[in-house]
């Protein structure tokens, strides 16, 4: 009990002592503390407001970022869909490109689309061919027998005479040349229409090519337009010939490529085999300050050598020999005392590697031919392979096949028309190229002698199609179907086809003249043939027509 009262009293005393009224001085600071608290609360409120604004800004930024991410995701999704569509179009384009490339390669292998039946061929003919009276079989046979067949014997006799004289002349040429310094001349070869038996127009001219090689220790290194380096379009069909020492590349020596010290000596080459002076290369018929063979220098050397050779053997012959054409350095002319003339071409050539393709120094020019890029550019001739191809195909054709007859008749008609209206861009080589394409495209039985008129029409149709498209491809270049028996170099088979009518694109005046001459020849064909044809009874002609029907 006392303890409880004590606790109550203690509590009352403590309350009285701690009452604020007993401390007036201390309580006088309350108002001041209140204002300070209010100020602090305002500052706190301001900081909270700023923090709220900062948080709101962060939330807004997060929302904007979220929207940007969502938009980016949408764009990515759309781009994926677009990419899928683009990949589809890309794949489709690649498929189309591959199909076109496969077609182009097939086209190159054939060098010309397969030729269908006569009804299909007629569709490519222009208006000029319609209404043309084409000679029938009997008229063509009579014309061929009277005008063309009789010239074969004359050609054989002329070939024999020219070849014999050319062999004698070249033998004399070897004897007058310096074997240690001059070019080495090999035996000549006959090429062209006279040796393929389809030359019809006089004067008959034999074309002979003479391969030559440099003296030891030099050799020729040939480079063509299709050997890897890029050649301009106007230099396609050409190549260059570099004169080198035979051991320059074979030994692999670097003494010519690296500066050796004064106290060092190459054990493979002596000091004599150092860089050759310019005068020595000019003696090797190279262009000035180069190692490339100069066609003009070669022809000058050859003309001088032929003149010396003729002076040595002229006493054995009863005729004169002279150069006949200034623009054709290899053109020679034999003149007998009776006034009879025999012309032939003797042209130096360089063999391409171990093939029968040759670089020819000068080629017969035509109005269609472009200017030679330079005298160091040599034109390539495939005349030997062309002759072999005709001989090879002839073995598979029927007896007395009409392929040569077609070419002879077409060559005669074109030559006759040019003599009336002037020359055109077409040459006999173009006509022969047409025949080579048809020989490869047509079955052997289509060249039977009784189908002369049909095959002649094929050649005219093919030629008109080529003129219309301004495209006539070289038979061998780019042709993957050349018979393997010929041993034709694969580098030319894999090359891009060479368009012989490309100059027509650049020379519209010559193209117009050529087309007009061709159409005029078609219209005059019957008159030109009938002029040299024996009269054939009408009943006989009608009978032949009925049999053909």
TrEMBL record:
Residues 403-477 form the Mab-21-like HhH/H2TH-like domain. Keywords: Cell membrane, Coiled coil, Glycoprotein, Membrane, Nucleus, Signal, Transmembrane, Transmembrane helix. It is a single-pass type I membrane protein. Residues 38-72 form a coiled coil. It comes from the Eukaryota. Residues 1-20 form the signal peptide. GO terms for molecular function: protein kinase inhibitor activity. GO terms for cellular component: nuclear outer membrane; plasma membrane. Pfam families: Mab-21_C. The keyword Coiled coil applies. The keyword Transport does not apply. Belongs to the ITPRIP family. Enhances Ca(2+)-mediated inhibition of inositol 1,4,5-triphosphate receptor (ITPR) Ca(2+) release. This is Inositol 1,4,5-trisphosphate receptor-interacting protein. It comes from Origma solitaria.
């Amino acid at each position: 009990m006392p303890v409880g009262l004590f606790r109550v009293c203690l509590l009352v005393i403590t309350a009285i002592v701690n009452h604020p009224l007993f401390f007036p001085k201390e309580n006088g600071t309350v108002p001041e503390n209140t204002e300070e608290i209010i100020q602090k609360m305002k500052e706190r409120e301001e900081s909270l407001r700023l923090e709220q604004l900062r948080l709101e800004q962060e939330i807004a930024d997060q929302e904007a970022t979220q929207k940007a991410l969502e938009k980016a995701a949408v764009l990515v999704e759309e781009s994926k869909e677009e990419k899928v569509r683009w990949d589809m179009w890309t794949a489709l384009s690649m498929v189309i490109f591959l199909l076109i490339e496969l077609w182009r390669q097939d086209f190159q292998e054939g060098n010309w689309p397969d030729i269908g039946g006569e009804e299909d061929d007629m569709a490519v003919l222009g208006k000029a061919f319609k209404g043309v009276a084409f000679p029938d079989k009997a008229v063509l046979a009579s014309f061929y027998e009277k005008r063309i067949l009789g010239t074969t014997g004359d050609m054989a006799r002329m070939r024999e005479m020219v070849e014999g004289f050319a062999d004698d002349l070249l033998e004399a040429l070897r004897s007058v040349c310096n074997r240690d310094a001059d070019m080495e001349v090999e035996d000549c070869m006959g090429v062209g229409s006279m040796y393929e038996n389809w030359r019809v127009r006089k004067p008959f001219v034999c074309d002979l090519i003479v391969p030559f090689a440099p003296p030891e220790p030099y050799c020729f290194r040939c480079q063509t337009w299709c050997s890897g380096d890029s050649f301009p379009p106007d230099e396609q069909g050409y190549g260059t010939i570099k004169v080198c020492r035979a051991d320059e590349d074979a030994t692999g020596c670097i003494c010519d490529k690296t500066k050796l010290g004064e106290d060092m000596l190459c054990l493979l080459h002596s000091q004599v085999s150092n860089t050759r002076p310019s005068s020595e290369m000019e003696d090797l018929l190279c262009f000035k300050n180069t190692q490339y063979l100069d066609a003009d220098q070669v022809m000058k050397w050859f003309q001088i050598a032929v003149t010396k050779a003729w002076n040595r053997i002229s006493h054995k012959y009863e005729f004169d020999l002279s150069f006949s054409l200034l623009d054709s350095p290899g053109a020679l002319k034999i003149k007998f005392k009776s006034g009879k003339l025999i012309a032939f071409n003797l042209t130096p050539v360089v063999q391409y590697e171990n093939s029968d393709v040759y670089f020819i120094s000068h080629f017969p020019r035509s109005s269609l031919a472009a200017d030679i890029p330079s005298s160091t550019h040599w034109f390539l001739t495939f005349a030997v392979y062309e002759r072999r191809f005709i001989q090879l195909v002839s073995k598979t054709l029927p007896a007395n096949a009409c392929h040569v007859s077609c070419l002879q008749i077409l060559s005669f008609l074109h030559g006759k028309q040019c003599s009336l209206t002037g020359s055109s861009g077409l040459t006999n080589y173009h006509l022969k190229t047409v025949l080579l394409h048809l020989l490869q495209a047509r079955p052997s039985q289509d060249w039977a002698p009784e189908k002369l008129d049909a095959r002649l029409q094929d050649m005219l149709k093919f030629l008109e199609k080529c003129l219309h498209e301004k495209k006539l491809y070289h038979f061998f270049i780019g042709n993957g179907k050349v018979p393997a028996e010929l041993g034709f170099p694969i580098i030319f088979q894999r090359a891009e086809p060479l368009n012989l009518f490309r100059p027509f694109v650049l020379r519209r005046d010559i193209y117009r003249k050529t087309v007009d001459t061709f159409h005029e020849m078609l219209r005059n064909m019957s008159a030109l043939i009938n002029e040299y044809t024996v009269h054939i009874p009408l009943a006989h002609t009608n009978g032949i027509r009925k049999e053909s029907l």
